[in-house]
């Protein structure tokens, strides 16, 4: 259920907003996600900055994906890349720069903040908009330790976690994404290419069967996947 938020183009409203994504996940966690975090006390949920595609050659249209060897993370990203004709490659993040430099991979999916951390702009010249998908994170603690704390300390944790903690964390991470993108484009020579609205619409159509399959699988297990998905994306 938690990983449904990883599906392509899945976020509240029309554009990804990390504070809103984190807030929505945290609000929905007690009802829908707590059972998947048995043995953990959830302080807050968060989402990663959505990935863009860093590439050695520019991706300016949907057809440019065909045959490209692209590093991916989650299984849903793999399905999306396959749907556009790319060749997904499972490469650990710290090895991505080397894989790109040696031609093992042609492109890699990362948020800009991670792209800056791994210095991808030193081996590729392009990054493609729009972002494709996010990833889920949770800040948790041992429930026995949480319950063993005196009430005044638990009150401090409660005040700084929950929705307030999620939004604060989301704002900080999103600010780093903006900083990284600006630094890459102004100082490192990274060029941002942008798919047309028509190509983005085609990608979203290709994503629909991937989303439907993921929802159907969870529903088959008796989980309220469609209800959760609708609540998260509304």
> Using only CA atoms, what is the Rg?
19 Å
Sheet/helix structural class:
alpha/beta
From the spread of the alpha carbons, the general shape counts as globular
How many separate domains make up the residues? 1
List unreliable stretches of 5+ residues.
none
Instruction: Provide a count of the helices.
Output: 9
Head-to-tail CA distance between termini: 16 Å
The CATH H-level superfamily is Bacterial extracellular solute-binding protein, family 7
Q: SSE order in H/E notation?
A: HEEEHEHEHEEHHHEHH
Estimate the mean pLDDT confidence: 97
The neighbouring-strand order within the major sheet is 4-3-5-2-6-8
* Major sheet characteristics: 6 strands, mixed
In percent, how helical is the residue content? 40-55%
CATH level-two architecture: 3-Layer(aba) Sandwich
Tell me the total number of β-strands.
8
Percent range for β-strand residues: 15-25%
Oligomeric organization of the protein chains: single chain
CATH class: Alpha Beta
Under CATH, the topology can be stated as D-Maltodextrin-Binding Protein, domain 2
Structural topology:
Layout: H1 18-33, E1 41-47, E2 52-55, E3 69-72, H2 75-83, E4 87-90, H3 96-101, E5 107-110, H4 112-117, E6 126-129, E7 136-141, H5 143-148, H6 151-160, H7 162-187, E8 191-194, H8 197-220, H9 225-233
Parallel strand pairs: 3-4, 3-5, 6-8
Antiparallel strand pairs: 1-7, 2-5, 2-6
Helix pairs in contact: 1-7, 2-8
